[in-house]
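Re: Re: token formats

Sure, here are both.
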Amino acid sequence: HSLLSKLGFTDELFNNYSNVEYSNTGNDEVTIQTVLDSNQFTTRRVDSQRTALLMSSTSWTADEDFGMLLEALVQLDSLLVTYFDANHHSIESNATFSRVLVVVTGKGPLKERFEMDMRALVSSGRLGRRVVVKTVWLEPQEYPL
């Protein structure tokens, strides 16, 4: 919970889909996957806006095909939009995710190019509806186990 909170990974990342069903009493701290209540007790979110989290580290070098990753994420975004929005499906199980946050960590020469390509896809409306991508730097001890 503390890492998600520190990085600002809240429902606001998905501002196009902000119809959160979680009822926040005002004292709870809510991330995309957890809730820290006023008693400092952390629980896993089970509402329909709980988000799948995919994290990967990279060195941002030419031997990694980031174009393939972005195209796969565009396809996933399109599938989720079609399934949950166009067809008006609801989430029937707590195991189902209607949103995905992809976090790519690391430093390297191609990071800026990836971010530029990602912004272009978001601007065109092909990415960022139900799949959001963030690049961050994490210290080794911050990686989830």
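Second one below.
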Amino acid sequence: MKATLAHNNYRADPELQTREKRIICVRRIACGCAGCMARLRLPLPHRYEPHDTCERFRIFGRMNDWKLVELVLTEEGDEAREEIEQLGLQERTDEIASLIGEGEAIAIAAPGDKRGFYIADTTGTVRQ
């Protein structure tokens, strides 16, 4: 994660992936100029090499070159993924709660039953 913090453009090129390694390409700023797009159409060995055909090369120089980063699963990664999933769940729950008003009905999926659901009438403002 630390190697990618200063970068905002990520590319998971299927041709870089192997059974043993997961590699992404990162660079600071996304660019869709003709020079950069032509570069991405080259064969893999030359696709991510530094080049000066980018329209923004005068501005960025080599600071916007692609870098290859190997993704490694760690225990920290598992904890981060869990935390992200919890945040996503919390955001969805907050969104649903904000849409429900007093006296409205809501449907809740029944646990373990793919076709069943519960209907509940709200009696007050939904809150946590």
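The two ends are 33 Å apart (CA to CA). The longest helix spans residues 75-99.
- S.
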